[in-house]
Structure formats: C-alpha cells, structure tokens
Specification:
- By secondary structure, this protein is of the alpha/beta class.
- The protein has eleven helices and ten strands.
- The strands form two sheets. Strands 3-2-1-4-5 form a five-stranded mixed sheet, sandwiched between helices. It has a five-stranded mixed sheet with strand order 8-7-6-9-10, sandwiched between helices.
- A hairpin with a 2-residue loop joins strand 7 and strand 8.
- Helix 2 packs parallel to helix 3, helix 4 packs across helix 11 and helix 5 runs parallel beside helix 7.
- The radius of gyration is 20 Å and the shape is globular.
- It binds 5'-O-[(R)-(carboxyoxy)(hydroxy)phosphoryl]adenosine and zinc ion.
- 5'-O-[(R)-(carboxyoxy)(hydroxy)phosphoryl]adenosine binds next to helix 5 and helix 6.
Length: about 350
C-alpha cells in the first residue's frame, strides 16, 4: 500500500492522433518520465495522418511505451494511485486503444481511471510547468483546434472565439504540403520561413481589424495556392519567401485576435493575470516572440510550456488526470470514448 502522505502518482496515456505517449507525473508537479513515439514515418508517404494506420500503430507500441515510462520513472504498477488516458476528442481508433488500456490497468490494480479531454490536457499544462493559478487567458493552437478561452478552473472554460474553418496547425500543414516542404508541415514551414523575406509576396491577414475573436485560415491557404500557381516552378528562395509571408500573416491574425480577447479578459477579470499559449503550434518560435510582446504591452506575464510539452504528450494527460483526481472527478469504466468533445461540454461537471 502506498503512503498516502506522498503526492499521488499517476500514469498518463495519449493516443488521440499520431503520437503514442506515456508519462508518469506526481501531484507535486514532478514529471518522472514522459516518452513520445511519433508515427511520422508511417504516415509520411500519405502526406497526412491515416486513422487506420495510426490505430494499429498505437496497438503495436503502447505496451512498450508504458513500460519505458514506468522504468524511466522507477515506478511499478503498485506505486500508481490512478491512471489517465485521453478520452477524446481525436481519432476514435487511437482513443479506443489508449482508453481501453487505461481502463484495463485501473481494473487490474483497483485504482481510479480518468478519461481526460485532450484539450483540457493542453489547457492545464501551464499549471504543471509553471504552477499557475486560475484564472488565465489561453490561446490554444494545435492541428485540430484554434481557440481563445478564459481558463477559470478545472472543467471551467469560457470561450472567446474559435476558428470558423481550418485550425491553425492544419493551415501550416496544408500550406507546407502546397509548398512541397514535406511532412509534418508546421516545423518544416517554420524552418523554411527563417531564410525567407516576409515582405516580397503580399498575403492577406485573415480577420485582422474585425471585432471579436474568431479565426479563419482557409482564405489565406487559398491565397497561397493562387500565388504558387502564378509562380511555378518554385525555387528554394520562392519557397522560403512564401513560407515567411504565410507565417507572418498567421502571426498578424493570431496577435490581432488575441489582443481582442485580452481586452475582454482584462475587463472581466482585472489586470496582471497571465496569458498562456498551448498546443503544437505554440512550439513555433516566431509565435512565441509575438505573443510575448503582446503580453508585455498589456502588462501580462506570458507563459508557454517548453516545446515538448506544447506538442502532444502524455505528461499533460497525466497532469489533467491528477487535477481531476484531486477534485474526485474520476471516470466510470464504461466511459465511451468521444471523437468530438468540445471543452464547453466539460463545464460544471
Ligand atoms: O498539439 P498537437 O501536437 O496535436 C494536436 O492536438 O493537433 O499539434 C500538432 C500541430 C500540427 O499541425 C503541427 O504542424 C503544428 O502543431 N506544429 C507547428 C510547429 N510544431 C508543430 N506549427 C508551426 N510551427 C511549429 N514549430
Ligand atoms: Zn494536441
């Protein structure tokens, strides 16, 4: 039996997209291990994630990833106080693999199971890394999501705006594909943009100057496609300049929308509270710099987790599981994995 005076120890599992990840985290905010196996090689030839391949790969590697996470942490199954897995939103095959594994461990060890909303995992990461208190303003930018929210408590989110079409990471990925920069697109596009001139090829800045906090990226993607069609064949300089122009347009849009959300957030919650970025696109250095400046101009502390905790990982799932465990909000073993699971549906649960 574990000593109950010690901070609780949890195993987290993440399988909602193309990363098979496991982590051991404790209630004192220590990440004992966090291992991630990317499936990039399996999906590369298709230029995007193939759900069936992803699910099969999770089945093949999850056992091994859990063993590695527990070995690295020096933890055995009797040491676990709970097990958490992403319960959605995501590719349902993968979510089923991870949540079924977590339920099985919970049943075998007679410990609580927590089905974690993947977005809540991203949203609460800054509390794991920086010990933030509620409330804070969050820009959540990933491959599947783009939203601005006030994080008021565990399960308590107020959305200021989200995307009306593509998520920002999706826009990075599609644009990178269009430019022939390879897969995965976000990091490849950021690398190409570093050598580019953002001023040579003008592109629109989506939504800039409009009221509210909605995002839209499909028009920008189409504008890039038209430019490419007019310039082909592209050489390396064209690619770099287009990447730089695209990235600059995305930054202008994210900063403009965030500025509107900051105004609303400060009016409602007061000054001096943190502004947080999370999700895979928050690994982008140009975005981090732009948001840091914006936060500074508004007297806010800017907090962004290290890049490895911005992209998908299981430490964030373990941490969100601990936050819920602390509040007694564990899940039943008959929890049904959810391909769609908006954060708004967590409120007051
Ligand atoms: O959070 P995440 O790992 O998975 C989802 O929950 O979607 O985010 C993945 C997304 C992908 O679209 C990827 O291209 C993007 O994050 N991404 C980036 C960078 N690193 C990852 N986008 C721009 N710049 C980056 N450095
Ligand atoms: Zn994610």
């Amino acid at each position: 039996m574990r000593d109950r005076k010690q901070p609780p120890v949890i195993l987290g599992i993440e399988t909602s997209c193309d990363e098979t990840a496991a982590a051991v985290v404790d209630g004192a905010r220590t990440i004992h291990s966090s291992v991630v196996r990317s499936q990039v090689r399996e999906h590369r030839e298709y230029g995007g994630v193939v759900p069936e391949i992803a699910a099969r790969s999770h089945i093949e590697y999850l056992d091994d990833m859990i063993t590695r996470a527990m070995d690295e942490a020096g933890v055995g199954f009797p040491d676990l106080d709970a097990v958490a897995a992403t319960g959605g939103p995501g590719l349902i095959g993968g979510v089923l693999v991870g949540s079924t594994m977590a339920k099985t461990i919970a049943l075998a060890r007679d410990i609580p199971f927590i089905a974690v909303n993947h977005l809540e995992g991203h949203a609460l990461t800054a509390r794991l890394t920086d010990g933030l208190r509620f409330p804070y303003l969050l820009l959540l930018v990933s491959g599947g999501h783009c939203q601005l929210l006030a994080v008021l408590g565990v399960g308590e989110y107020r959305q200021y705006g989200s995307t009306v079409d593509d998520a920002v990471g999706e826009a990075f990925d599609k644009t990178a594909k269009l430019l022939g920069l390879g897969y995965p697109g976000g990091p490849a596009l950021e690398a190409a943009a570093r050598d580019g001139d953002p001023g040579r090829i003008p592109l629109p800045s989506p939504m800039v100057g409009r009221p509210g906090c909605s995002f839209s990226f499909s028009g920008l993607k189409t504008a890039v496609r038209h430019r490419v069609a007019g310039m082909e064949p592209l050489d390396a300089v064209d690619r770099a300049d287009l990447a730089a122009a695209f990235q600059a347009a995305v930054m202008r849009s994210l900063v403009d929308r965030s500025a509107n959300a900051i105004r609303g957030f400060r009016a409602c919650h007061g000054d001096g509270l943190p502004f947080v970025a999370a999700g895979g696109v928050a690994a982008n250095a140009a975005l981090r710099d732009a948001l840091q400046r914006l936060a500074g101009e508004n007297g806010m502390r800017f907090v962004v987790p290290p890049a490895a905790l911005c992209t998908d990982n299981a430490a964030m799932i373990a941490w969100a599981g601990l936050e819920r465990l602390r509040l007694g909000r564990t899940s039943d073993l008959d929890f049904a994995p959810r391909p769609r699971w908006p954060l708004a549906e967590l409120t007051h649960r």
